[in-house]
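Example (one chain per record):
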Amino acid sequence: MNQQKLAAVILAAGQGTRMKSQKPKVLHPVAGQPMVAYPVGLSRILGCSPAVAVVGHGAEQVQQALSNESLQFVLQQEQLGTGHALLCAEESLKGFNGTLLLLCGDVPLLKQQTLERLLACHAAQQATVTVLTAEMENPFGYGRIVRQGEEVLRIVEEKDASAKEKTIREINTGIYAFEAPFVFEALRGVGRDNAQGEYYLTDVIAAARAAGRKVCALVTDEPAETMGVNDRLQLAEAGAVMRHRINSELMHSGVTLVDPQTTYIEPQVEIASDTLIHPGVHLRGATCIGHNCEIEPGAVITDSILGESVHVKAGSVLSEARVGDSSAIGPMAHLRPGTVLAGKNKLGNFVETKKALIGEGSQASHLTYIGDAELGTGVNIGCGTITCNYDGVSKHRTVIEDDVFVGSDTQFVAPVRVGRNSLIGAGSTITKDVPPDSLALSRVEQRVIEGWSLKHRRAKKK
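Predicted structure:
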């Protein structure tokens, strides 16, 4: 890890008109996270202090999205170029004397290792400016890097490049390491006396060389990681690269992905070895999955924790749930926030839970709703059972103690408690507490009228 004194500025003020969106460009998601979250995360990992985000279009939305980060925010009122955006951060960096890392909020694929190499090169060369570059097969439209050995003489934009300079394949990625406060002095010195009336970061290179300072460049090993996202096509390309990166790391760690191209796993997700992930699975947020699990096609799991040997069957949806070891979920089950399964549980097809604490070995095999409830161990819930937890004003709790057997088509009208080792007859509506070791029934006594059907059928034919 680089030990030099380090700050960061993340440029996140652009409108992104090519996205054709009311949402600020940097908030469009790549693998489930706003693209700006990636450079911000890198600045945190590298220990940048302070870290400053320059915001503009949709500033409040960007600040809200990054509210959990240790960032300072500055507003770029006018869009006068990337150099002007950096100047907007000068006040926040007043008194800082060290290396300033300039990152772009629309470049989400940059790797930590690449920035560490950039900073190491910057320090080893005792450079004032070090620019991250990439070799492109088709460099058309990019600024070309004109070198003399290790040093950079200038960056030439496409429109200003000579025929010879246009053959150069090394291009400017827009990622820099600067020495501060020199970079701010240089930007103020070069001004914006040009056709666009903007401050150009590339002018800092000429200012540094004129001051007798060293300007270097480092070529990235993987040009794709410096790709900027400017439209929906590039957003999809960045998502595919990130997905491949995440999935590759998981497979190298011992996770089986049957079809990585159709498996969508966000970067914060953790999966232990020998777990099998089928196609079409979405794993989101802070989900953590233990060893030897199986996640079948179409499952969507968000911010949930699964123990070991958990089987999530096709089409199931889990959100903010905790599932204990050796449990089976689904198919087509829905575990909503606050669901906690102790382990060895079975929740079958079309079972829905919410704020439910379910003890070890308890099960509901099909067509059941368990909400605002607590189940003990060894409870069996029959088909079609529901907890009636809402009275139109408030939510109420159902408690079912250990070893209770609930017959099919039962309604528990909360608040209600069922004592341990009791049996609830099928078709019952339970409105009062049931003592332990009891049988509770609420069915109307069955009547049989023999010959009724034949009589009424004859009547209809007349």
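Caption: The helical segments are 37-45, 59-65, 82-88, 112-124, 182-190, 203-210, 232-252, 452-461.
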